[in-house]
Amino acid sequence: MDGMTSVYPVQVIAVASGKGGVGKSVVAVNLALALAGLGRRVMLLDGDLAMGNIDLLLGLGAERTLADVLAGTCELGEVVVSGPGGIRVVPAASGMRSMVRLSARQQAGLIHAFGRLAEPLDVLVVDTASGVDDSTVGFVRAAREVLVVLCDEPASIADAYALIGLLNRDYGVSRFRVLANMVAGPREGRELFAKLLRLTEQFLAATLQYVGAVPWDDNLRRAVQRQSAVCEAFPRAKSALAFRAIAEKVDGWPLPANPRGHVEFFVERLIRAAQAKSA
Ligand SMILES: Nc1ncnc2c1ncn2[C@@H]1O[C@H](COP(=O)(O)OP(=O)(O)OP(=O)(O)O)[C@@H](O)[C@H]1O
Ligand SMILES: [Mg+2]
Fold it and tell me: Which InterPro entries does the entry link to (predicted)?
């Protein structure tokens, strides 16, 4: 050990959804940025291993990814790139497909790599692939907080319910945070949450906590086209205001107690979850 192992509690938040295209990646990016605006040291990990687009959303043009770290051709520190607002970004290792496929040596290498990251961190935000593939389940189980994003479409509600149901019944995840995206206003967001709550209350032993709503916002679309986060490109846009309000709430979430809060423990839990799945 080189004495630089992380020894501080890190909040780990996995952003997930049932249905695709509901705004997970946009939420992950802007939440990361808004938390950085509150003075937190934030890392954003693109956990959509096969189809990740965080580098595109932020116009980062990343050349190396986690796949290179696992292949042993570079260090994690060389993969991490700087994003807006000082956030640090780990781009997706596209083509890696699933954590389940990592060899024991690759897994050890990944733990080692996160453990050696010299940069202190307060929050790790993990964007995930939509649905319930193995790597998403792994990230969610390894995180302390699961933020489920949904929008007001029957398929989105049904798929959010299915995701929560699977994680609850098959994996014992019992607490979920819920964010309503692309809504007309705060009231529609609360109603959407109420719909989901009615479904889950009837059948599941899970607790759902409402985080808030992000309104439908043309400025957010414009920001995506410019490969920029709305919080940066249009800081006074209504969605940017919503993201900042949500970040203030998130910032008040309790921190994990040591020692599980270390970033390297996040990776260990991730890998254990993957092994349990494949066993
Ligand atoms: N609040 C919003 N207002 C308007 N458009 C939005 C909003 N949130 C997201 N979008 C649009 O939806 C698109 C999809 O968002 P995003 O890529 O974040 O979804 P995703 O859930 O990560 O999708 P995938 O499942 O494919 O990973 C964005 O490119 C953006 O244009
Ligand atoms: Mg995405």
Answer: FlhG, MinD_FleN, P-loop_NTPase, ParA/MinD_ATPase, YlxH/NBP35
